[in-house]
């Protein structure tokens, strides 16, 4: 069953979902590499949690208007709007108050997520049948995913990937030397807008498959894994994207192979397995290689 | 001392716009403030082509801030920065900046060549590919600072002096006309200091304009042609003989004159 899932033999829909997930993982890994280089990984956590009020809010509005609350494009737009407001709030807190960014992220994340959960309880008061479909956005689900949804995710991922390619130079420059970058016309403000735009886009695109609680893992784990294997930015970005694609593809396929397996957690576990393998076995930067070097050095003395 | 007056505080040489067009680097009325405290106050400065100018002054005199504000890294409260008569924002391609070495994270996953290629950012834009001609130019710049053999070395494995030379190579790759350097000799070995000064003198002799924030008074007379003495406000400006005088140093350094005169004696 697992083998069949990985070989895309579980039917047209499951295969499409796995491929969509792979495109998403590829883009998330590539964006995550720049987030990692900018040492801003935590921001993605604020972005993803801040999507919840917008997501639930749009669902409520659509349902109360008598429409279908599960319209994926409308939900994406709502999530994007509330994540953007969350980012603006974090930015306002860090520039206008003495709050450091990590504290500002913690504040924005918990307040917006809490507000979203409150809205969720309103949804649960709706008549049965109309409230279904929203919980899958928390932990991600491939079950019952529509063809159109998988296509949107795949193309969304590829669009984000194109954005990464376009901004790769300014984002590398500001990560290494923001002062020099500013003299070249790439201000911190511009690079922030590029990076946050990409993070926001990939978060919104990935909500359905990975879920908003765990999308951060898809942005953080692949680059930290890739860093064990390379000392160059371009290779780091490519490798991180590749690792994200593998984790998302394998995770989505596995979760499709059995009923009730949440997709997000499985993807994260596959990612963590790759990370652990690299941590131990990577040449030069891995734990094993370090231990061997250390022993050799000790013996040499 | 009276013959040095035209270049000292309170006697701003009137400069017409046509004059400014020939001036590679000019500040007019530059004021920068952190909070409500002005760090740089109403400063005029003129750096000339084919000259090497030292910005000197005591700690906290606003030397680095002056450069950063000129480059738009630190916001200016008022004043103008012109490069050949045009605002800096429209002349970025003609100015190269070498920041302080400590300003970046050297554990960044890059090798030396990658960093030098960053000097081509404006030329490459978002989409143009790096070609072998670009790489050859970067290697030639590394050659000029004596670092060609290190092209494929990880930047984390460089010594402080080597890092500084890589930064200079990146500035060379920009092929600029004005070079602004923030303490290029701070904490580097003698070999590096000699290499850097050799490159800067060569650039000057090609007619480029060099401006360095500099803190070692004992080398001012040997390395530089012109001196800009600042302590929040402009204290003196002119050739080494005109502006690097005991009297001007006394006004800039105040109670720390002893060190200043010692340095003059050594020079």
From TrEMBL, chain A:
Keyword Transmembrane helix: yes
Segments passing through the bilayer: 12-37, 49-66, 72-91, 103-126, 146-167, 198-221, 266-283
InterPro entries xrefs: ABC_BtuC-like, ABC_TroCD
Keyword list, A-Z: Cell membrane, Membrane, Transmembrane, Transmembrane helix, Transport
Membrane topology, record value: Multi-pass membrane protein
Record's subcellular location: Cell membrane
One Pfam family, short name: ABC-3
Family: Belongs to the ABC-3 integral membrane protein family.
The protein's name: Metal ABC transporter permease
TrEMBL record, chain B:
Alphabetical UniProt keywords: ATP-binding, Ion transport, Nucleotide-binding, Transport, Zinc, Zinc transport
Molecular function in Gene Ontology: ATP binding
SMART domains in the record: AAA
InterPro entries from the UniProt entry: AAA+_ATPase, ABC_transporter-like_ATP-bd, ABC_transporter-like_CS, Metal_Ion_Import_ABC, P-loop_NTPase
Domain ABC transporter: 25-257
Transcription is among the record's keywords: no
Signal peptide extent: none
Keyword Ion transport: yes
Family: Belongs to the ABC transporter superfamily.
The protein's name: Metal ABC transporter ATP-binding protein
């Amino acid at each position: 069953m697992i083998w069949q899932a990985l070989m895309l033999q579980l039917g047209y829909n499951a295969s499409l979902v796995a491929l969509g997930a792979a495109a998403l993982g590829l883009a998330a890994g590539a964006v995550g590499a720049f987030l990692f280089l900018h040492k801003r990984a935590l921001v993605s956590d604020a972005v993803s949690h801040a999507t919840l009020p917008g997501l639930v809010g749009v669902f409520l509005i659509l349902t109360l208007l008598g429409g279908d609350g599960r319209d994926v494009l409308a939900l994406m737009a709502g999530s994007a709007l509330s994540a953007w407001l969350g980012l603006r709030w974090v930015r306002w807190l860090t520039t206008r108050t003495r709050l450091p960014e990590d504290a500002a992220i913690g504040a924005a994340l918990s307040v917006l997520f809490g507000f979203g959960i409150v809205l969720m309880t309103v949804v649960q008061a709706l008549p049965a049948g109309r409230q279904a479909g929203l919980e899958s956005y928390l932990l991600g689900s491939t079950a019952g995913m529509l063809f159109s949804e998988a296509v949107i995710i795949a193309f969304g991922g590829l669009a984000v990937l194109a954005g990464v390619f376009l901004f790769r130079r300014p984002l590398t420059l500001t990560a290494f030397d923001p002062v020099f970058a500013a003299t070249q016309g790439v201000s911190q403000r511009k690079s922030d807008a590029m990076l946050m735009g990409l993070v926001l886009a990939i978060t919104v695109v990935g909500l359905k498959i990975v879920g908003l609680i765990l999308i951060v893992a898809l942005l953080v784990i692949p680059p930290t894994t890739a860093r064990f294997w390379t000392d160059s930015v371009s290779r780091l970005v490519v490798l991180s994207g590749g690792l994200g694609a593998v984790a998302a593809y394998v995770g989505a396929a596995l979760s499709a192979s059995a009923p009730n397996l949440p997709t997000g957690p499985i993807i994260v576990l596959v990612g963590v397995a790759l990370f652990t393998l690299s941590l131990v076995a990577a040449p030069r930067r891995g734990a094993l290689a370090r231990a061997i070097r250390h022993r050799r050095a000790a013996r040499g003395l | 001392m009276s013959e040095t007056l035209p270049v000292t505080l309170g006697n701003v040489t009137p400069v017409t716009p046509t004059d400014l067009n020939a001036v590679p680097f000019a500040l007019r009325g530059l004021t920068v403030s952190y909070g409500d405290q002005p760090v740089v106050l109403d400063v005029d400065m003129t750096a000339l082509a084919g000259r090497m100018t030292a910005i000197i002054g005591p700690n906290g005199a606003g030397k680095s801030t002056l450069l950063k504000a000129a480059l738009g890294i630190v916001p200016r409260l008022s004043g103008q920065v012109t490069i050949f008569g045009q605002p800096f924002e429209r002349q970025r391609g003609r100015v190269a900046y070498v920041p302080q070495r400590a300003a970046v994270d050297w554990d960044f996953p890059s090798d030396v060549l990658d960093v030098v290629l960053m000097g081509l950012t404006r030329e490459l834009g978002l989409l143009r590919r790096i070609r072998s001609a670009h790489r050859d130019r970067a290697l030639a710049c590394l050659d000029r600072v004596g670092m060609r053999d290190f092209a494929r070395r990880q930047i984390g494995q460089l010594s402080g002096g080597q890092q500084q030379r890589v930064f200079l190579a990146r500035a060379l790759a920009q092929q600029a006309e004005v070079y602004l350097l923030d303490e290029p000799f701070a904490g580097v070995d003698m070999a590096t200091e000699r290499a850097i000064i050799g490159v800067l003198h060569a650039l000057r002799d090609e007619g480029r304009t060099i401006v360095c924030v500099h803190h070692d008074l004992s080398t001012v007379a040997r390395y530089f042609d012109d001196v800009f003495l600042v302590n929040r406000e402009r204290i003196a400006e002119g050739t080494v003989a005109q502006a690097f005088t005991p009297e001007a140093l006394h006004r800039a350094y105040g109670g720390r004159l002893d060190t200043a005169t010692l340095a003059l004696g050594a020079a």
